Amino acid sequence: MTCRPRDLSRGARMAQRAAADAPMLVQLRGVNKHVGMVQVLNDIDLDLARGEIVAVLGPAGSGKSTLCRAINGAERIDSGRITVDGQPLPRRGRELARVRAGIGGVFEPFNLVACRTVLENVTAGRLAWWKAAAPGARRRADALLERVGAAEHAAKYPWELSEEQQQRVATARALARDPKLMLFDGPNPALSAELARSLADDGLGLLLATDRPALARSAADRVVFMDGGRILEQSPPSEFFTVPRTVRARDFLARAHDS
To answer: Which of 86, 88, 128, 165 holds its CA 20 to 30 A away from the CA of 101?
Structure first.
């Protein structure tokens, strides 16, 4: 499918949001994380606004996945500060669970419940997080499965689906919680530029940790390039893919295989 050009009216709305007094949806300052003797996040500074799509590119082991897990509290950082919606990310307990309720994530493995149908997986997510009435949860789940392109699989079980189809279901399940932030980690073949932009137009912030340059080029407002646990550069896609500033970014793009 050919992606449509960037929507200039959406760009204007992004500028208005950036100029508003509301805090950034996500802000990282001086974030560091070690795994054993390896520093997997090295002095990370990063902002993400409401309605913005940030694509994080980099080779395997660059720190993309750890970055996502740190933002949703699944990885405890060693030092630095992470704020979500203007509030410091709690380290544990009920306060962390409350913040994570507003963060949707699509990670591998997708952890769909094998003994429940696709519809039940999505509906259960909404019931568990927001205690929505069952009829409303069913209508919401149907609408989300339609939105992610998985409506025809509603009566199937996860083990009957391909990996890409499972990913679509996991996306619908995450959206059922009505998050303000969506984190996508991995290849994400089920995520299209059109779906990403439509979610951003709804006001969600999206962080795409991906190895798909084409997705970053067509969907992102900003590309962040990581290597060795560091952010080496960040710029609009038109700039990053035309004139990357670092040798490592140029090497990565030269070697990247995308479809």
So the answer is: 165
Cα–Cα distance for residue pair 112/159, rounded to 1 Å: 9
> Residue 206 forms beta bridges with which residues?
53, 182
Q: Which DSSP symbol is given to 153?
A: G
Is residue 157 scored above 60 in pLDDT? yes
Report, as an integer, the average pLDDT of 145-162: 97
Query: Given phi > 0 = left and psi -120 to 50 = alpha, else beta, which region is 114?
Result: alpha
pLDDT at 10 over 70: no
CA-to-CA dists, residue 252 to 45, 63, 193, 206, 235, angstroms: 22, 15, 21, 23, 16
For residue 5, the 8-state DSSP code is P
Closest by CA to 53, choosing from 166, 176, 214, 217, is: 217
Q: For residue 194, what are the contacts with CB-CB under 8 A and spacing of at least 6?
A: 1, 3, 4
| 188 close to 167: Cβ distance less than 8 angstroms | yes
Token reading at 243:
């004139």
Place of tokens 């995308």: 258
Query: What's the Cα-to-Cα distance from 197 to each of 15, 80, 156, 168, 192, rounded to whole Å?
Result: 16, 30, 28, 16, 9
Q: Which of 8-12, 87-91, 99-103, 235-239 has the lowest mean pLDDT?
A: 8-12
- The answer to whether the CB of 175 falls within 8 A of the CB of 144 is yes
DSSP letter, residue 178: -
- Detail the DSSP E strand segments found in 63-129: 79-84, 87-88, 103-106
- The model's pLDDT over 52-108, given as tens digits with 9 standing for 90+, comes to 999 999 999 999 999 999 999 999 999 999 999 999 999 888 889 889 889 999 998
